[in-house]
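Suppose a classmate hands you a notebook page containing two proteins, each written out with its sequence and a corresponding row of structure tokens. How would you begin to make sense of it? This section walks through that situation. The first entry is reproduced here exactly as it would appear on such a page.
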Amino acid sequence: NAAGEELLFRIAGADGGTVTKGVVAAGSALVLPAECPAGAAATCYVYFDNPDAWPVPDHLEATLGVRNGGMERGEDDAPTGWRHDAADEQHRALWVSEGPRSGERCLKTVVASGAEPTWISTRQHDVYVTPGAEYVLEAWVRAEDVQGSAGWYVHVGNDDDPMLVNQVLNAGDGTYGWRQVATRFTAPAGATGASLGTVLRGTGTAWFDDVALTCATAPRLTATAVRNERVELLEAGGDMPWHRDGQVEGRWDAAAPVRVVNLQSRPLENALVHVDASRITVPGRFRGGDLLVTDRARALPHFAYQNVLLFAAGVPGRSLSTFHVQVSEDAPEHQDPLEQYGRILASGSNLVRNADFERGDALPEDWPGGAEGERPAGAQMSVVGPGLFGRRCARTHVPHGAQRIWTGWRQDVPVRPGGSYFYAAWVRCEDVQNGSVRIHAHYRNAAGELCESRKFASVGAPIAGTTDWTFMSGVFDMPPDAAVFQLHLTMNATGTVLHDGVLLAEVLPGTLGALQPRPERAAEPLTVWPVNAVVKVFPDDVPPRNVGPARICCARNEAEPLQLAVRAGPEPLEVRIEVGSPVNAEGRALNDVEVGIVGYVPIDHRTDYFSSEAPVWHRMLAEAAGGCDGWPGLWPDPLVPTADLDLAAETTQPVWVTVAVPKDAPAGDYVGAVAFVQDARTVARLPFSVHVWDFALPERSHVAAIYDLRLGGRWDLPGRTPREAREQFLRFMAERRVSADRVQPEPVIRYEDGRVVADFAAYDEAAERYLDELGMPQTYTPPGRFAGEDPYDGGYPYAGADRRRLRPDYKRAYQACLRAYWDHMKEKGWADKVTLYISDEPHVDQPGIIEQMQALCEMIHEVDPAIPIYSSTWRHVPQWDGYLDVWGIGHVDHVPVDAMRRLREGGARLWFTTDGQMCTDTPYCAVERLLPHYCFHYGVEAYEFWGISWLTYDPYAFGWHSFIRQSSRPGESQWVRYPNGDGFLAYPGAPVGHDGPVSSVRLEQAREGVEDYEYLYLLRRLVSEANGQGRDIAEAERALEAAAGLVTIPNAGGRYSSRILPDPDAVLEVKEALARAIEGLSG
């Protein structure tokens, strides 16, 4: 629209279907939402013909009238625009050709005699309605032996209340031919759409056809397309001349273009260009401090640190200018980033006043300090020395034990609506507890109020505890109503925080293109080199100067991946990957070898949690800076089981060769080879070795890695029942040493007439496979709502209830049902694997939640104090000590290590809860690999993650999630987007032709982490035994100490893999040291 806000749209083809890709054919229509004041006109802008644009995942679902109301068009088992409810043996919704009223097809619903009445239906959603307009719904029904009612329904409303209108059009029961039903309604104020569908409430068979929804009110809008416009840009820059450095011959290994667009007509003489340089500055790829920025052959001064590259350059008006960045593997850093940053800090580009806190006496000028409300007792605001960029810096201190309130420094900085601004500061912590620290800002309009579309911003990896100076930065686009960007150097924690070097500057965004190797290295038709499997490989990765040996090590009864980067030269290649099984000197082979090709998925925005208050017809976008060390682009993740590699020219693809070592394999070295074959000709061949350690890993792991399993939708498999699909997925998980969350199907447990009615037959059959055969280490109890009993009087949300006093009828029913389940699990020998998950992330700050949890835990423990109650609280809540048995805490900075120790000493068990950590767009699979290490070194017995299979889009096409409606308290909801890859570590197999789930590099490293734990567990036991025998344990203690050094609490969190694991090779080095120590104590 004219405010620059993106709208959803729909391209309707000539046949009425939605066109989502390819050519828009003649006769198609553009459908878009109109936002127009009464009696006025509004303008929308349609952008097209951008060859670099990605497909969009969301289209305007609303249509003017019912889509495909005659049921004639469709594919598979449903007509286009309609969705069947899930079927069972007694309730089925179908698309058939059995005597339609018109045309060749109609809908059919069958409910078996004696079946429970349900609202099974075939439905259509998102039919647009105009508030205040009058509508007529007409449809047809025929029936055979219907007992109950058959007909249609219509709901009209919005996301908060979808049933402002709720009407059922009943055609009657019995047997009859085609019969019309109709209704008339007025769309209420606030309504945005209608949904409608079939009804067979009862038993029998009914057919449905020819439904239409007609607006009886004359249309009030007209739309006119005007002349197309095109922008012509001057192209400046062009091909890159390799810069010669007289001191180091050939020091630059790779280069990438940086493209800068200036749409203004005036030239910019000294524009500050910001580039997200994460792809080239991530540790282990290239040295971020030693790069070169050139404008043609001229080197430009710049600031390069972490993921930030800033440089000043002249940019012509209406131009696309190309600059170049050259990078080196090993040249020494020759520029001080603090010196570079200091020059920008003091320049006219910086809009922050007193950015280095040098002006002022006891308090700095231009920086009001305090709290939002009453300052916490004992809080101190001051300036201290030395600073990072001068004599002093700003200090905020909040004593431990004080009430947590947002406290710190603020400054209003005028900004230009629509401008892009780089915001940065340096932050240092001293004993920060009860929270973490980032830098923040508010978007404010000319009246000083929060802006309409965007209100708050935060950036930087959270820090806590005691840290050195940490750089935090991000780029923020100002909304149309912005006048002030209010900087907040604040914290909602206790301890001491220092700030210095605050920068806010308007920038031109520069887009980093693909890396290219030096010309002499680019000519090879195919280049192959090994890469640590913890490290993610990208399409523009270039070969290293020196290729090391391809080597993996593993114990017996362990699987280990060998990752190879395969890069094509100037021409594309199609090759078959052939692996010769590794063989030892005696001829014994390791034959269990799997080949997989790592696919790339697109990521649109650096990951984080995002929210939106946009209307449903706007495209909801991730607009905040994000919170990870990744970047937008193609990311490696799905591990597709295939040996056929189709490689584009000048592109790198990761290939995995996973070797599983049997329990009886002799220890020692095995040698194999990977060949890349094209038309019976070997294009490249790489030998590799496998060293098998002289010990075996156990069948059952000593640490639990729990992932919630949700199936359905994209996971449905043709020809397989949901039960068969679930069993296949469970075996897939067990092979990777991870556990699902619970046994399913749930047992049938009801409380009727004062007694428990239970049927455990199907549950026990599933539990035997889940717990006994597959060895899953735990299961959550079934959901605990029984017999319709409410915990409090008055109805949900029980306003005014005394949360400490549960209704006696509720307690009686709940305890009876729980006791029946618990006694059954004890009888079957499974009770030690049961956990009662009482609450996911309880909102402890809301009134009554603490008391409610206490009452519920007391009720449960009255059944049996041995029932372990778990809650993913993230933090320690002292009021629940003695109530919760198992605490789900965060591994980042949520609970101090001393507090974890005290909880364990008090008899509590600890798990890590890990939502939002295992994301796609971070350069290493660090948290997946390291979580078992955190468990081992901090006395935590398991970690749980809320999903292995939760999908909102086709994950191959879109690597991010849709915005979903979510409520954090009764009566309030908002649109929320979860982090990229959050909730799933597996992919459906059907889109890539695989029968079963497809793994990911993240899931495979989760397995590697669980196997690492067994090395640690075994060595600790051997050390204990050897110490009692007086044997030398020095090597083993050094290995355990090195392993402990891999993990620390507090830390930056899983979304910052390059910070929690700056040297990915350290994981493999530690594992090898552990293995050698195990062998040393096993003799």
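The notebook's second entry, a different protein, reads as follows.
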Amino acid sequence: MSDRLECKWWYFAPTRRCNDDSQLQRWSTGTQISAAEKCKRPTKGDGNFRESEKKRAGVEDRVKKLEQNETTHTQSRCLEDQKILLLKLKVEFRFDPLASRKLVIWNENEDEDCCSWDGVECDGAGHVISLELDNESIYAGLENSTSLFSLQYLERLNLAFNNFNNIQIPSRLYNFTNLTHLNLSETGFVGQIPVELSSMRRLVSLDLSNMYTGNQPLKLENPDLKRLVQNLTELRELNLDGVVIAAHGRNWSRILSSFLPNLRVLNLRQCYLSGPIDSSLSQLHSLEVLRLDLNNLSTTVPDFFVNFSKLTTLSLGGCSLRGLFPSKIFQVPTLQNLDLSYNFLLSGTLPQFQLTRSLRIMVLSSTNFSDSLPDSISNLKMLSRIELNNCKFSGKIPSTITELTELIYLDLSDNNFTGLIPQYPMLKKLTYIDLSRNRLTGSLSSAHFEALSNLEYINFGHNLLTGNLPSALFVLPSLQKLLLSNNQFDGQIEEIPNPPASQIKELDLRSNNLQGQIPKFLFKFEQLNVLLLSFNFFNGTFQLEKTREIRNLSSLDLSYNNLAIDLNVNNSTFSFFPDIKRLKLASCNLEEFPEPLQHLNLSALDLSANQLKGKIPTWIWEINNRSLTYLNLSFNQLTSFEKPYSIHSLTILTVLDLSFNQLHGELPIPPPSSAYLDYSNNNFNSSIPADIGTYTSRASYLSLSNNSFTGVIPTSFCMAYYLLVLDLSNNALNGSIPSCLTENSGGYLGVLNIRRNRLSGNIPDSFSIGCRLKTLDLSHNSLTGNFPGSLVNCPLLDVVNIGYNRVEGTFPCMFMNTNLRVLVLRSNRFHGELQCPGAIQEWPKLQIIDISVNNFTGDLSPSYFLNWKGMKDFNYDGNEGHKGLRFDFLKLNEFYYRDTVTLTIKGLDMELKKISIVFTHIDFSRNKLKGKIPDSIGHLKSLYLLNLSSNAFTETIPATIGNLKQLGSLDLSMNRLTGKIPGELGSLTFLSFLNLSFNKLSGSIPLGRQLQTFSADSYEGNAGLCGFPLNISCNSNKMDGVPPMKFENGHFQRKTEIDLDYIFAALGYGTGLGISVLLLLFCPNWRERYFDEVDKILLKIFHKQRGRNRRIGAGVPRNQIRRL
């Protein structure tokens, strides 16, 4: 789960109730709920639900204005027939008397005046003119024969937030010819809206919203929108949220503007409307509130919204809007609430704001808005809520934001903000602040939090913050969540001798550089529920006994520190322990299974990366009465299972990770409820059970890789319909690939990896339409036959690797113009030309292509590389660069599968365990390509490795190769290239490997600081070449080719580039191989840092620094899962 989210609904719901207008909170798509807010879907029993919406939208004021225009009725004693009708109505309605506040107190007492009953209003003659029965828990009794329809003088009827359990709206509503206000919102009505409603010509307000109740929708198809509203010309407020409206394109706009010219409030959220928004809507001159969220409008935002001079609320969240947002809309003088969230293609910038006291809520989250925040944001004096998360804003957070004294909620997370965090002494009303996932620097001081007594939620995680943590953070009186993970905070947390009572429920300090002992004051936080301290340098001894003082503690993570864990607990005291549900003790130097844990009611246990040896004890499967949902024992030295064991009896175990141990023998039957199963990197040596699919029918991830499994791939895998990742790589499986695996590719399967086995036969050509594969790796087998053309049905593919087989076919032009990133056809029997007739040679994202050791022939056209956009420009995103190429799944828990690929670099077969998105590679070697190397190769300015060796290329080396400033390896050997070596190659200062041998090159090797740094082997076999480093002089009077020397820092310098040998050594080759392998195998904490360093080296080569150096998770950069 994300650090800052408790829940997220794709509905509009009030995030909290407000006590006054200064605390307005919004309804919004995917509202992110603070720690103080209840993660609760609104229900019909919530008496303040609709009131909360009215306050936020400003509807209440407008309703009052409308009431002032109505006739004022003098309350009189009700007539007897009216009282009888009301009492009959009470009997007819079925409701919950315990939840009712009005109906339940109506009674037959003769002295009771029914006009004084709650929910009832009468006119001067004693007729009932208003019934307000919202939130009365009515669940039946509204039929065409009910007494309700005999109340002929009714002007107002409100039955909102009851539940009539999927019945149709009664058609007898037409009896109410005097009705001006009808509210049937969230009442569980379904089906077609009756045409009779259109006869209520006096209606001023109509609310049929149906977004939260009922399994079936309300519909407006026959009659359609036009027939409903064509007679309702007095209508001022129309609320049809959640109603399926059969009006598309421009029709709905024109209908509303034609028949409802006086409309002030229009709510059409989630009505299945389409765009564009027609200009006729601009005729609604009185419009004050417009909400169109969750419709697929797929259009631009029209400029005419600026002309709505009374507009107070504009809400367009989740409408698939695109293009540039008209910035003048921000300046509409009456605008109070603006929501454009979840329009990912909508771009724009914030204008220079003029002084205004109107705008209160500004929500632009998950849009493409960019640029900096203007200092003039301080002119929005009434602004109480700012949500700009998940955009592309950059620059510094303006200090003027601290002048927004009404600010309650501030979310600037997931942007590119830099610089220091401003101090907020004047924001005394602030309750929520989220600045996470930016690039903020500097330290925190006590001054940042002075006077913030109302602050409930702080999230500064995933930044570059440094220094000590101020003690003031931990004593804020209202603080409930403090999230500071993935920064660079260091030092020891200062003790607080007598800490005041704390409200902190969640404390996340993971992935920092904190040192010393865990402070004692944390154990006095009685409300503390979640304590996450992993990936720091805390030391000393942690005694589990201490947690008895934190009675509410349910989640504890101490992984990856320097702690000694003392789990010795007196059995008699377990009844006083907190009810810990999640316990993570990865890399805590445990040498044996801590038996006291069997007495805890755990649902999640992580003991990975310790020194546990021998058998897995039986009791671990019995924890909490077999109610474990998560168990991670990976990266230990476990060999077997203590018998009897019953993994399959854990009926709710969702995650089981036994990878990287020494388990052997037969594969244990997996638990039937598992979503994630990892048995990889063990010594299992049996066949895979034929019925394994029956036990993995609910699994999303299954890895049996890097074992010694034999036999065939069971066809029962095809029963595991929900599999997203199936990894059987690096085993000894034989036989053919079951055709059902490809026939079922239209299910959920995203990764199929069966590389490095002994499979034979054809690749099934049965990939189904709607195929969702992103990674297909069949390499290093003995597969034959033709390349499957049905892969054209898999448009989501990122990686296709069938290298090292005996597959035949022509170049797969089907992947042109797709998002494919990696294509490896190496060492097969492909033939024909690389040119795709009649097609534009465009590869939008291709970064690695290896088609070497085949029989491709023909020339490459001069423009061949012109549209290889994936290698043209180097656009590095720090976060994406760190992740590498991967497949995300089970995203709520941040699980992902990481792709690998084996490439030949400098003559070595090297397996890249992590494919960085900045790594680019072209290998066309050992084919029969001829003609001139296209000059368009010079457009690939982010190209890193180029190998065109062992072909029949002729003519000269293109001088445009000198444009490839990121090039680290160039191999043009064993061709028929002629002419001189272009001097431009001397400017390739990052070039670490060069091979031009065995061509027909002539002339002198160009002088410079680069080309003379390579050995003579790079140039041998070219009879006409001369100059250093060859022992052939071009001029008898002097030695050619000696590079110019430069005196710097007290000695001569000749070479300034970063040597690729260093990088390749970091990948597992070179003199440090033995030590590196041992550390990689047995020290996962070191391994994570090691590969992070490799990332930094690679990114420096591309003139970029990594955005940060994070230590993430307990896994390793490998072809499998990591958990954050």
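A careful reader of the second entry would note: The radius of gyration is 35 Å.
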